[in-house]
Amino acid sequence: MTALRPVPEHIVRPPYARGAPDPRPPLVKSPEVIERMRRAGRVARAVLDEVLAAVAPGVTTEQLDRVAHDATVARGGYPSPLGYRGFPKSLCTSINEVVCHGIPGHRRLLDGDIINCDVTVYLDGVHGDCSETVFVGTPTPAARTLVEHTFQAMWRGIEAVRDGARVNAIGKAIEQYVKPLGYGVVREFGGHGIGECFHMAPNVLHYFERRNRQKLQAGMTLTVEPMINAGDARCALLSDGWTAVTRDGSLSAQFEHTLLVTRDGCEVLTLGDDPRPFFQRGA
Ligand code: MF3
Ligand code: CO
Ligand code: CO
């Protein structure tokens, strides 16, 4: 394995990257922490935009990793994936049948691929996490349809978030949208609470589970990040211990935002100035 990309000394590392125990922060954030979450979310969005702009046929996923790493560090952040539970890179790159947690490497992007780039930034003591799937060159009609529906599915989930709702309202909304389409909603990986910790409670399932009934409260911050497979929902794990793929080899797409639960809905902390996903923006 190649050496980890260096991070300048002045960048503050998350606890797991300095051998410190993970904190056990309260799920409901203080106004001061929320303000820091807004900044981490904005930086994660800016970094993701830079990464997505670099996607093109012939580019390697390792080159995208460099863009993510440098763009994060340039903004004073630490790239959260780097060294997280042994993850070796600063970005997750998941191509075609890869469901999530693809490790950047020598793979070159090809015309017709779809790729999800997942950026997480640790800034000022908190994480911001977001991802999008984009087309490399011209997509097949089936790939375009899957990506469009996955984006819609994420928004159905986001629209179910508000103070007092149960967390399983998110999965219910996503499943209701996806089921008639004949796609599979991935069950092995979910969204998560986020803040001082990269991953914390609540566990956000993207399918309906009666027992996933923790109440959402204003001031909680969490991600919604459905992975939708064109075929069967089931996943397999490659021998690198990270890369999750569809069992049947079908395409998989994903979108992710970090949200703040509010009285009557939520604030999308990773939205940025342009609410359109990258795949719908003009060149
Ligand atoms: N960003 C991913 C998520 O949405 C987690 C990546 S963990 C890593 O939760 F170690 F693979 F980076
Ligand atoms: Co996440
Ligand atoms: Co993520």
* Average pLDDT over all residues: 97
- Architecture, according to CATH? Alpha-Beta Complex
Low-confidence stretches: none
CATH topology group:
Creatine Amidinohydrolase
Distance between the termini: 36 Å
- In helices, the fraction of residues equals 10-25%
**Structural class, please?**
alpha+beta
Based on CA atoms alone, the radius of gyration comes out at: 17 Å
| β-strand amount | 15-25%
Number of helices: 4
Task: Name the shape in a single word.
Answer: globular
| Strands, count | 15
Can you identify the CATH superfamily?
Answer: Creatinase/methionine aminopeptidase superfamily
- Bound small molecules, which ones? 2-amino-4-trifluoromethylsulfanyl-butyric acid, cobalt (II) ion
| Domains, number | 1
Task: Describe it.
The chain is α+β, with helices and mostly antiparallel strands and 283 residues long. The protein has a single domain (28-271), classed as Creatinase/methionine aminopeptidase superfamily (Creatine Amidinohydrolase, Alpha-Beta Complex). It is 24% helix and 23% strand. It has four helices and 15 strands. It has helices at residues 31-53, 61-74, 141-159, 168-178; strands at 78-79, 92-95, 98-100, 114-123, 126-135, 184-185, 191-193, 200-204, 221-224, 227-229, 235-237, 244-246, 252-254, 257-262, 265-268. The strands form five sheets. Strands 1, 2, 4 and 5 form a four-stranded antiparallel beta sheet that branches. Strand 4 and strand 5 form a beta hairpin. The longest helix is centred in the first third of the chain and has 23 residues, at 31-53. The model has no long low-confidence stretch (mean pLDDT 97). It binds 2-amino-4-trifluoromethylsulfanyl-butyric acid and cobalt (II) ion (2 copies). One cobalt (II) ion binds at residues 118, 120, 129, 131, 225, 256.
